[in-house]
Specification:
By secondary structure, the chain is mainly α. The protein folds into two domains: 284 residues, Fido-like domain (Fic-like fold, Orthogonal Bundle), CATH 1.10.3290.10; 71 residues, Arc Repressor Mutant, subunit A (Orthogonal Bundle). The chain has a three-stranded antiparallel sheet with strand order 3-5-4. It has a two-stranded antiparallel sheet with strand order 1-2. The radius of gyration is 23 Å and the shape is elongated. The two termini are 35 Å apart.
Length: 387
């Protein structure tokens, strides 16, 4: 439904020139959403796919393993949308040995994203409300170091920003004046907690657009806006674990994503955006279910191969394999910490797994070597290749 422009323009001076900043109207849309026909079917399909993902997470042998992996995959993808070139392997190596040989600024940005999401989930788990205060805390973690650390981490902006172009005067979009940000964000917080009967998926889709339109921070808005979707779904009880992340879908359809964000602002066609968003939820949830099953099958097949072929070394090799399931890139020293094996036993077991083609050495060095659980990392890294 085309409702027309979903806000108003306010004339301001920015960078010494007059510009028109867009101030969105509070949610929900007016007139109300039309959730029938194709959009209702898309909502049902997305809700069903989300339910399957939630059910699969309950059947996993150790959902913390998958949560660790999915959070990092999402961090890489969300940061790639913003222009970083770090890969999943870069991030895992950085977390292990603080980044020799990886793009430092990029991988710090991705690592910050992991920390920001972890912070948000921990706070929600402690009973802290999903609020503007929590959003600012998440932003402070996201910009705690590296690029953007000088752009007021944890604070709503006090100056004008813009999207596209070299200055506000030639920008593709100018968000609200900084004086309007507190009121806009207060209205968004009220909408996130409104008792109005909207399905949680619809609420998350609307809130994401509104957040991106307000653009309340000087930097990091895209990443925080994508984090907000996962936090809203977990907070609403739609997911027990945050295993749904949309960044792969948005990376694959980046041009349409940005076009639809702008089109909603200009035409008020929230239904067109929601159709795209709900398709993304369905595709992403179904992909996560498939990936989870593939990983479970890989773990079982590799365990069976070790038990069948490793002979007397099977016990130690299985302990190393279990360590690599928790962290698919490890040094031998960390394998010892996680498995309880001595260094010689861990080294011998790792060579057994390498001989079976289960693990691969990454550095080519004779000392301080790193090993990866090859099939696990390959499955997990699908779609995270640098742009």
């Amino acid at each position: 439904m085309r409702r027309g422009q979903i806000g108003r323009y306010e004339s301001i001076s920015a960078g010494g020139e007059p510009v028109r900043a867009f101030v969105p109207a509070p949610l929900p849309p007016d007139p109300a959403l039309v959730l029938d026909g194709p959009l209702q079917r898309a909502l049902e399909a997305a809700t069903l796919a989300l339910g399957r993902l939630d059910a699969v997470s309950m059947l996993l042998p150790d959902d913390t393993i998958f949560l660790y992996a999915y959070v990092r995959k999402e961090a890489v993808l969300s940061s790639q949308i913003e222009g970083t070139r770090s890969t999943l392997s870069d991030l895992l190596r950085f977390e292990l040995e603080d980044a020799p040989g990886v793009p430092f600024e990029d991988v710090v940005e991705v690592s910050n994203y992991v920390a920001a999401l972890d912070h948000g989930l921990r706070r929600l788990g402690e009973g802290f409300p999903l609020s503007n205060r929590l959003i600012r805390e998440i932003h402070a973690v996201l910009l705690s170091r590296g690029r953007g650390s000088g752009k007021a981490p944890g604070e709503f902006r006090r100056s004008q920003n813009w999207i596209g172009g070299t200055r506000p005067g030639n920008a593709g979009f100018v968000p609200p004046p900084h004086t309007a940000v507190p009121d806009c964000m207060a209205a968004l917080e009220r909408f996130c907690h409104a008792d109005d009967g909207l399905p949680s998926l619809v609420r998350a889709g609307l809130a994401h657009v509104q957040f991106e339109t307000i653009h309340p921070f000087l930097d990091g808005n895209g990443r925080v806006g994508r984090l907000l979707v996962a936090l809203l779904l977990c907070n609403a009880g739609a997911l027990r674990q945050p295993l749904l992340y949309l960044s792969l879908y948005l990376k694959q359809h980046r041009s349409r994503y940005y076009d639809l964000l702008n089109r909603v602002r200009l035409t008020g066609d929230w239904e067109e955006w929601l159709a795209f968003f709900l398709e993304g939820v369905q595709v992403t949830a179904e992909g996560a279910v498939t990936t989870s099953r593939r990983l479970v099958e890989t773990f079982a097949a590799d365990r069976a191969a070790v038990e069948r072929d490793a002979g007397r070394r099977a016990g130690s090799a299985l302990r190393v394999l279990d360590a690599l399931k928790t962290r698919p890139v490890l040094s031998l020293a960390e394998v010892c910490n996680r498995s309880g094996l001595s260094f010689p036993a861990a080294s011998s077991a790792m060579q057994t797994l390498a001989g079976q083609g289960i693990v691969r050495e990454l550095t080519g060095r004779p000392r301080n070597r790193l090993f990866c659980y090859d099939r696990y990392l390959s499955i997990l890294a699908e779609g995270t290749e640098a742009l």
